[in-house]
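Journal club side-thread
Mid-discussion, someone asked how the predicted structure for our own chain would compare to the paper's figures. Pasting it here so we can look after the session.
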Amino acid sequence: MGEIVEHLEKITLELAANLVQGNATLMVPRNSSSIMTTGYRRVSYNNRGSRHSFCLLTYMLSRVHRLQVRGGSFTVRGLYYSDPQLIRSQSRIAEARLDVCRMLNTSPLSLGILAASKGLMAGDIRLLMTNGDILDGSSYGGAMTLPTDPEKIDRIETEADFVLIVEKESVFQSLLSRNVFYTMGQPFILITGKGYPDCCTRRVVHRLSEENQLPAYILVDADPFGIEIMLVYRHGSQAMSFSRQGLTTPSLRWIGLHPSEIPALGTGAVALVAGDNKKINDLLARGDLEPGVRQELRMLQDIQLKAEIESVIDFLTDDYIPNKINRNLFL
């Protein structure tokens, strides 16, 4: 906390010095993946186009400073409703929060301004919260929403053998409806981030891997966007490349669907579209791709087909998932 407060106050002093000279400007670092040659973008009150962004940034900086000094937390939604006339939309305040993260070189979880968690979990898992509450996945008998602030999880108790992440909520719910825990015959934790995962979901997966020493597997669509979601869990978000500590699981095992399996599916595959091919090229340009992942992306380019998890849903629990895990068929 001390480092964040010190950094905030340094930014404030620099802004005050600029104001004396009639230059109300904040400098926001760009993503390291940006193709722009400059490392910063200027957000100025003097520029009509960025005036609202400047006001939101100063508002967010003051809120974060207060939270760091006094403690507590806000949600993005709560901040919006505290002054909707200033903020205008929840997406605007979410963007300002990310800009402050870039300025402070820290993750959103460290600010005390939290986005509502969208992750779901089920299975053999108990979250012991710092306030004494216990969230017990086994007692719900179904899906349980992850807490908004994962740092309020004191520790995680589980007798599970592994963690299984599925890309989509529809597949998560389908597996539950098919009594996946009974069918698989061993205790595990089922998690979904409902597409691109939020920080909370990624943080919980990281802690299960590091603190509970559980192997983590992921099942995504055999398309470039599914592969990108897998990479977000494994290596972090490109939009937050400045702060990945505690949010990544490098040991994550990708069990499928693999593009190399598409020819064997027969029906169920559809043609790639222009957006898919652009995403493939963007992913291939990354420097953190493992050789096996790169090869699967090349396969997508070659066959120009993609497939969803639903194309193998009928034999996921009886054959596909157990076979992949037991025979170490993952990348």
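Post-session note: The longest helix spans residues 51-70.
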